[in-house]
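User: Let's play a game. I give you a shape written as tokens, and you guess the letters that built it. Ready? Here's round one.
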């Protein structure tokens, strides 16, 4: 079981780095919760591969700092499609 979790943590980090995915997108893709994505990157991966964890963390931090922009765009899209 431990191997599977470690493998998943590495896969998740690689996916985030390659695609610049958000926690939500990553959770959806891997069929896990957002908190598991966080735990895999911030705790599990840190012990297995600290440099990979740091790279993934950097992407997540950028995404987090931009989330208010994405939220605004999503709301704008919603209202555009509603025909207001």
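Assistant: Ready! My guess for every position:
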């Amino acid at each position: 079981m431990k191997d599977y979790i470690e493998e998943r943590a590495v896969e998740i980090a690689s996916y985030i780095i390659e695609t610049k995915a958000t926690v939500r997108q990553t959770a959806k893709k891997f069929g896990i919760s957002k908190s598991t994505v966080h735990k895999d990157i911030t705790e599990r991966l840190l012990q297995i591969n600290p440099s990979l964890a740091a790279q993934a963390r950097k992407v997540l931090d950028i995404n987090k700092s931009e989330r208010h922009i994405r939220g605004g765009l999503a709301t704008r899209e919603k209202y555009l499609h509603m025909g207001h």
